[in-house]
Design brief:
The N and C termini lie close together (about 5 Å). The strands form 5 sheets. The chain has a 7-stranded antiparallel beta sheet with strand order 2-1-15-14-13-12-11, with helices on both faces. It has a two-stranded antiparallel ribbon with strand order 3-8. A two-stranded antiparallel sheet has the order 4-5. The protein has one domain: Beta-lactamase (3-Layer(aba) Sandwich), CATH 3.40.710.10. About 50% of the residues are buried. It is an alpha+beta fold.
């Protein structure tokens, strides 16, 4: 593999100002085959980022929590077709936000009960403020913080659609974390540690980073008035009231690659199995039927995210976005992928026997210039093989 061309993509991304820093890692069936980095941990600083630098992986947490849930299914402790309220009675109290009377939210009962499977597939009807204007308005009207607050009150947020009627990206996996705790009889942090990160040797992955790990953390960068990257001071709640299955993990590119390799290897890496091969196959299989992952999701909060334009032909498995056709010059059909709000991104291409990830730490999410770094790195990788 010509790694120099990959290094050049990363250096160009930083030198052009597209990102303040960037790390990329790649593995195939034999193990890691590439690590590259460019830029400083703090914009303008002299401490370089590396594959051992810590990042808020945000929604890349979702696939880890999903794997923890699937482990419970394998053990017969969790029924995906059971109503969510069977494990979390509070969910049964939620109603559907059906508009507003002036500034007063208008609520109605849901047409059906959401199932645990629908939490895994983002079809349970719950949303995120940054992709749903009505939910953003509800939070403002009720004074309820968004999910990044770490407060349990976020679980009072209403549904924004009837369960099973559409793909709506939202706090499904945070609810799933509560289900895991109820079904497994342990905290989500323990379930992840004992079932996934511990067996895989992912010692740098945690809901609660140590002081040393926090010192090694890349700050969230935003553009200042002059357009240059600057640190924002944005942080997740260091003492949240619950462990967030949707966004709460911190990790390093090298550490998370262990988990990616387990997915690439059908649930096993270096002789350690964390999921059955049939379970992994299901995760990479369309689980939303005739529903589609939206080709375009407009932003409701431009400070948090740009418009997300995946394009047509995408489905959702368990915790993974699936492309149904080859992406020319890039990943093959059936690859699974997802990303984190602060612009971390991974994919697993089982057909090509390849998995990779790209990390920076900026807001808003998926701006065109940051997304282009993902595209350029992946394109260069497949061309260099």
């Amino acid at each position: 593999m010509n790694t120099a061309v990959l290094d050049a993509v990363l250096e160009d991304a930083v030198n052009s100002g597209a990102v303040p820093n960037v790390v990329a890692v790649v593995a195939d069936g034999t193990g890691p085959v590439y690590e590259g980095a460019a830029g400083s941990r703090v914009a303008g600083g002299d401490e370089p980022v590396s594959a051992d630098t810590h990042f808020r992986i945000m929604s890349m947490t979702k696939m880890v929590a999903t794997a923890a849930a699937l482990q419970l299914v394998e053990r017969g402790l969790l029924d995906l077709d059971a109503p969510v309220e069977h494990y979390c009675p509070q969910f049964g109290e939620l109603q559907v936000l059906d508009g507003f009377d002036g500034d007063t939210p208008r609520l109605r009962p849901p047409a059906s009960k959401a199932t645990v499977r629908q939490l895994l597939t983002h079809t349970a009807g719950v949303g995120y403020w940054f992709f749903n204007h009505d939910l953003l308005r509800w939070e403002a009207a009720t004074g309820t913080p968004n999910v990044l607050s770490g407060a349990n009150v976020v679980f009072s947020a209403p549904l924004v659609a009837d369960p099973g009627t559409r793909f709506e990206y939202g706090i499904n996996t945070d609810w799933l974390g509560k289900v895991i705790e109820a079904a497994g009889g342990m905290g989500l942090d323990v379930a992840v540690k004992e079932g996934i990160t511990g067996p895989l040797g992912m010692d740098e992955t945690s809901f609660s980073p140590s002081p040393a790990q926090r010192e090694n953390l890349v700050p969230v960068h935003v553009r200042g008035a002059d357009g240059a990257w600057t640190t924002s001071g944005i942080e997740l709640n260091p003492e949240p009231e619950y462990f967030a299955g949707g966004h709460g993990l911190y990790s390093t590119p090298r550490d998370y690659l262990r988990f990616q390799r387990a997915l690439l290897g059908g649930g096993e890496v270096d002789g350690t199995r964390v999921l059955q091969e049939s379970t992994v196959e299901a995760a990479f299989t369309n689980q939303i039927g005739d529903l589609d992952f939206p080709a375009a999701i407009p932003t409701a909060d431009p400070a948090s995210t740009a418009d997300f334009n995946a394009g047509p032909g995408y489905k959702w498995g368990y915790g993974l976005l699936l492309n149904t056709a080859d992406v020319p010059g890039r990943r093959r059909a059936g690859s699974g992928a997802w990303a984190g709000l602060c612009n971390t991104h991974f994919w697993v291409d089982r057909s090509a026997g390849l998995t990779g990830a790209v990390y920076t730490q900026t807001l808003p999410f998926v701006t065109p210039e940051v997304y282009q770094v993902y595209v350029d790195l992946e394109t260069a990788l497949y061309a260099a093989r």
